[in-house]
Amino acid sequence: MAPRPEIPPKFSESDPHEAALVDSSQHPIAIGDRTVDLARDLLVDGRGEVVPLRPRAWLVLRLLVTRAGRLVGKDEIMDEVWPDCEVTDDSLVQAIGDIRRALGNDNRLALRTLPRRGYMLSINGEPVAGPDLSIDATSGRPDAGVSTTPSATPHLSIVVLPFANLGGDPEQEYFVDGVTDSLTTDLSRIAGAFVIGRNTAFTFKGKAVDVRQIGRELNVRYVLEGSVQRGGNRFRLNIQLTDTETGAQVWADRFDKAAADLLDMQDEIVSRLANTLSAELIKAEARRAERSLRPDSMDLYFQGRAFLNKGITPALMARARDFFVRALALDSDNIEAAVAAAHVDFAIGASHMTDDGPAHFRAAENALNSVLLRAPHHPRARMLLGAVEIRTNRAAKGIAECRQALALDRNLADAHGFLGLGKHALGRDEEVEGHIQEALRLSPRDTRAFLWFMFVGMAKLHANADLEALDWLRRSIEANPSYTLSHFNLAGALAMIGDLREARSSADAGLALDPNFTIRRYRMNAWFRDNPVWLARRERFYEGMRMAGVPER
Questions:
Q1: Are 112 and 151 in contact (CB under 8 A)?
Q2: Annotation: CATH topology of 157-269
Q3: Which one of 52, 282, 432, 514 is least enclosed by Cβ atoms within 10 Å?
Q4: Alpha helices by DSSP H, 351-499
C-alpha cells in the first residue's frame, strides 16, 4: 500500500474555518473510483490505496466536497484555504491541478472550471448547474434538455514548458531556464491571460509530453514549447504554440541572435516573444470565440481586440466597438473590454476620423479614469490615459503616465511609441526616433508599428529633416496601407519639397480610404494649440496638403 500522504493539521474546536471545511456527516464520498474520507483526511483509489495529496490541495478538495454541486468562488477558496497568508491565484491553480491528477483521468470531468467565477465538483456524475445552465425553481436541477457538458478551460490559458537545451552544455542551462521562467512571468501580464506557474511547469522538464494530456491535467488551452541551441557566436531559439484541444500548431517561429551579454539577450528574446505571443493568442482566442454558439463577455472582448489589432479604419473601429459594447453589456466589470473601448475612442480622435475628436478624447479619459479607480495598476489603462493627455496638450503628464505603465509592464512597446509622441508634443523632436527604436526592439513586427513610423516621420518633418521624414512616412504606409492619416501626412510632406505629382497621388490614396477627410477637420483636431512654434510649422504643412489636393472643407 502507498505511504500515507502528508496530513494537514486538524482544526481546533474554536477554529472558525472548521465549520466551513468539514462536512458534519463525515461519511466517505465517492467520486468515480475514488473515495474521499473526510473523517480520516484521506483520498483512496478503487484498490483501497491512499492517493497522495499535498496539504493545501487537500483543503481545497475538502471544501469542494462539502459544497458539492455548487459553485465555489475563487475568493471563497482563497479565504478558506489560505486565511493567514497572501498568495497569488497561481497557488490555487496548482492545487486544482494536483486534485485533478489525484482524481485520475477517468474522473477529471468531476471537477469543473467556471471561467472567472470558480470551481464546482459533481459527485458520482450527478448533473450540476454550470454557467450556461438554467435551474428549475422546483427541483433545483437543470432544466430538461439543457446540456450539462463541462465548462471550457479558461480563456487564454497557457503553460510554458521548460525549453530544451539542445546543445547539452550545462553552462547554458541557466540561460535556457531563465528564458522559460521570464517568459512565464511576462506572459502573465497579457490582458486576460491565465498562465500556469513556473513551479508546476518545471515538473515536466526533460520529459516527453502529450500536449492534449497536459491540457486536460492543467486545464489550459495552449502549450508553449521551445528549444535553444548555441552554435559558435549565435543563439537560435525555436518556439511553437499548440492548441491542447486539437493538438494543432497555432503558431511557430525562430529567433536568431548574436551571442552577447546573456542577460541582455534573454531580456530581448523574452520581450519579443511576449509581444508576438500576445497578438497570436488574441487571434487564436478570437477564432475560438467565432465558433462559440453562446459567447461570453471575454469571448466578445477577444473578438474585438482582433479587429483593433488589424489597423485603424472607420470600419474596423466600428466592428471592434460593437464587440466591446456587447462584452460590457454581458459583464459591466470586464475591465479589459472597458480599456479596449476607450482605446477605440482614442484611436478615432487621434486619427482625425471625425470632426469632434475632443469628444472622443473626453470619453476615453472618463472611461480610463473609471477603470483606474478599480485597477490602479493596469498598465494599458495607464498608457492610454497618458496617450490621451499627450494628445490634449498635457504632454509632460502623459509622458509620466506612460513611464508608469512601463514600470508595470516592461514589454509594453506601445508605451515607448507614445513616449516618442510626447517628446514630439514638447518640441523635442530629436528624441523621438530613440523611443521608437526601443519600441521596435521589443516588438519588431508589432501591429501598431505603422503608427510609430508616422510619429518619427512627423517629428523629422517638424525638425526640417524633410527627406528623412519621407522615408519614415513611406515605411508607415508600407506597414499598413489602410491607415488614412499616413497618406495625407505623406502628401503634405511631398508637396512641401516640391514633388506635387507624388503628393497628389498620395492624397488621392488617402481620399479613396476616407472621402470625408478635410484640412478643416485636421485643423479642428490640432493639438499643441499653446505652442506657437509648433503651430507655425503646422501652417506650412497645411499649405502642403492644399497643394497636394486635400480639400479644405
A1: yes
A2: Rossmann fold (3.40.50)
A3: 52
A4: 357-374, 379-391, 395-408, 413-425, 432-442, 449-462, 466-479, 484-496
